[in-house]
Amino acid sequence: MNRNLTLDRRTFMAATSLLGCRAALPDVASAEATTRQVRGGAEHVISIWLGGGMGQVDTFDPKRVGDPRRRVAGSYYPAIETAVPGVRVCEHLKTLAPVMDRVTAVRTVNHDMIDEHAAATNRMHTGRPITGTVTYPSLGSIVAHERGAADEGAPPYVLIGYPNVTRGPGFLGAKHGYVYLTDTSQGPAGLARPDGISPQRQSRRERFLEVLRKNATPTDDPRLVDYDEAIQQSLTLSGPSFNRAFQLDKEPADLRNRYGGEFGQRCLLSRRLVERGVRFIEVSHNLNFLNGAGWDVHNEGILQQHKLIQELDTAMATLILDLERQRLLDKTLVIVTTEFGRPPEFDSAGGRGHQGTAFTCVLAGGGLSHRGAWGETDELSKTIVKDPVSVPDFFATVCATLGIDYGKNLYDGDRPVPITDRGRPIEALFPV
Questions:
Q1: pTM over the 0.90 mark
Q2: Domain range summary for the chain, segments of one domain joined by +
Q3: What CATH number was assigned to the domain covering residues 41-192+238-429?
C-alpha cells in the first residue's frame, strides 16, 4: 500500500510538473514573439526635413475644410483621392497622389514637445528629450555608425542644409558625423582645394603627413584616432571621384526641371549621392525658400503655405519615380519628418499653432509594403484613434528597414544607451 502511495505521489508530481511546463510554454513563446525582430533590406536613407512644423491637417491627413475668417476648425484646403483607395491628401499634393502606393503617411506620430522648436527638432533628430548629461546621436549618425558608407570613396552621412548639433554624432564621436553643404552647385566647401594647391603640391603635403604619422607616438585615445580618421576621409572625399556627384548639369535638363527649384535640386543631388555610396542624406527644406517662415505657419505665414506644399509635392514625387527608374527605390528609404504638427484651429490672424499629440511623418520606398497611410486620427486630426507611433517607434522602423538591430544598446563610455529608446517598428509595413 505504501508502495502504491509512493507511485501515486510520483505520478501526481510528474503530471503536475508537466502541466506547469505546458502552462509556461505560451508565455515563453509570447516572449520570443515580442523580441523577434523584423528586418528589411534597404541600403540608404534620404531624409527630408521640413523645418518649422508641417501641418498634417493641411497635407497628409486632411479633414473637413475649415474657415480661418470665421475661426471654424478644419483643413485649409480640399482633399483629393490618391492611388490608394480610401487614402486622401491635400489638393496641393496632386503629383504625389498617383504614387501614394509607394508611400505610407504615418499619421499618428506623437511626442510631448510643442512649445519649443529647438527641443522638438532635437527630439525628431535624436529620438529623445534633451538631457543635461548625455548628448545623444542623431538618426543619421546612428545609421552611419551601424552601417558605414556603402562605398569606401563616399562619406556615410551627408547633410544638405545648415549644420546643427541635433544632427550630429553625440557621444558616438566625430567619425560618425556629417559632411555638409548648402549650395548644390558645388561640393562641400571644406573639401574643395584652394586655387593655389595643385595636385602635385597636395601630393607632397600628403607624403609629409604620412611621415608625421609614422614618427608620432602611437595612441589609442579615441578622440585622436577619430580625428585622424576624419582627416583621412577628407583627403579621399576631396578627390575628383566623389565630387563628380555634385555635377548636376550632367543630368538631363527635363529631369532637372521636373525636380523644380533649389529644394528639388537638393533632392536630385541626394539621388546622385545614393549612387555614390552615401548611406544617409538629410535634405533640409530651409525656412527662407518661399515665404520667409517656412512651415512655421503662424498668422499670415499660412497664406503662402500652399507654395511650400507644392514644392514638396513635385520634388518628392519626382524623387520617388527617379529612384524607381534607376532601380534604387527598394534600396532607398525616403522619409519626411518635421518637429511637430499643427492643430486644426486657426489663430487670430488665420494661421496655426503647434501640435505634438498627433502629426504625420512619411515613409516611401525602402522595400516596405506601403499602404498610403498608417494610423488613424479623429475627425479633426487632434487625437490618435488607432495605431499610435512614438518617435522611438518611428526610429525603430527606419532602423529595421535598414537591417539594423533596433533592440541593441549603444555605449556612452560604459553606459548602455538603447539605440532607439526601446522603440518597436511598424511590423505591418514589412513584407512577410
A1: no
A2: 1-36, 41-192+238-429, 195-231
A3: 3.40.720
